[in-house]
Amino acid sequence: MDLYSRPLGEVSFSRVCGGSQQEGVESCVLIAPIPGLEDAFALRDAKNPDAGTLRFTGDELRAAGLATI
Q: pLDDT tens-digit profile of 6-54?
């Protein structure tokens, strides 16, 4: 399955936080389902969302310890 072949369009990203690396600083990503694909997600850096988007299957995200939406 080619996750990058699907356009994201105007998907709504949700914030997922956890895994703080510094005391008082929370680590967050933005996550959205990829339209037209089951159990596939796009991720962005919450602090710099214009830096680009990475895409993962739900199995890949769960293996990395990240909850899907």
A: 999 999 999 988 766 667 677 889 999 999 999 999 999 999 989 999 9
Burial status of residue 17 (CB atoms within 10 A of its CB: 0-12, 13-18, 19 or more): exposed
Query: Residue 42 forms beta bridges with which residues?
Result: 32, 55
pTM: 0.83
Contacts for 56 with CB less than 8 Å, ≥ 6 apart: 3, 40, 41, 43
Instruction: Take residue 61 and report the two structure tokens written for it.
Output: 């995200």
d(CA 43, CA 60): 12
Pair of tokens at residue 43: 């991720």
CA distance 16 to 37: 20
